[in-house]
Amino acid sequence: MKTLDIISTWIRIVIFSDILKSTGCTCQWPDGLADSTWLDSEKGELLFTSDHVTGYDVTHVVTSSTFDTWDCWIYNETGDILVMRSVDAFAPFFVTFSTTYRCLQLKKITDNSYRYYELSPIQEDMENAERMYVNEASDVTNMAELCSRDLGASGSEFKVMIKSGSESAARVTCPYALLADYTFTYTSSDGSVTCRADDVGTLGMCANTEEVAVTAPSCSRYPLYASSSTSVCVDVLEVSGHTYTSLFNGGSTSTDSALFACVGLSADGLSLSVSPLYCRKNQVPTELPVANTGANIGAVLNLTATSGIEFSKFVSCPFYK
Predict the structure, then answer these.
(1) 118 membership: H or E segment, kind and range
(2) 99: phi > 0 → left, psi -120 to 50 → alpha, else beta; which?
(3) Rounded-to-10 torsion of CA 105, 108, 114, 120
(4) What is this structure's pTM?
(5) Could you tell me if 147 and 7 lie in one domain?
(6) Do 157 and 191 lie in a common domain?
């Protein structure tokens, strides 16, 4: 492609983006989102205005086009379905423009937190194989096109967001099946870290039923991706007999820690899969979680209950007798 053609194409992109930005809509954000800041289990900080949100960063691999700002496009309150539209268009093949849409099925957990499923297909040409719908049209309103339960996330693949500044009000009681004190051994996603049999960590659940207190084994400083020793339960969901818990870690983040994590507990209470940020597609407690890119991530903890009383298959905290 000639230099002049490339410049012409990008000029058209800028003009087309300006058209999108000037397009008004009457969409209203779900309860509590407008003019506030939320913490998303995948993206981190989201800044909502009356009609836009920034923080949902998405990058197209081929063109390196990045989308950061999204319109409130359609909100179906009856079905708790929210569709957001990217403010900026892009030309994936330098020929035609495309607009991206995100479809979220929301479930309010508390007045300060939501769980959501992304009802959009995986786009392998986006970084991290993000879920979204792509169309050349910038004004798609057909919900059957914008949202797909068949191609979207389901089961264990859900995310959460909590209102910034109200983290303590977003706490929930950790799942009963997990309420015990444990020791655990640890295996990392790439197999490079496997604790020795005598190098164990501890999970403490009985001191505070809304928290997981961790003493890390020497082989892994951040077994739940928390930079501190405590993670807070913010969502609990049972899927196919397994229990999935979203944890808010807070604190600082690094290459080894994350703001959120997800743990999946087996029905027998003996195995815990850990995924950074959010719960993954087809995540099961006995196996390493797998990202949408196909890469193994996270870790598996093998649990041994150490204190409490016998109740059914689990050893639970004494006050749950």
Answers:
(1) strand 113-118
(2) beta
(3) 0
(4) 0.87
(5) yes
(6) no
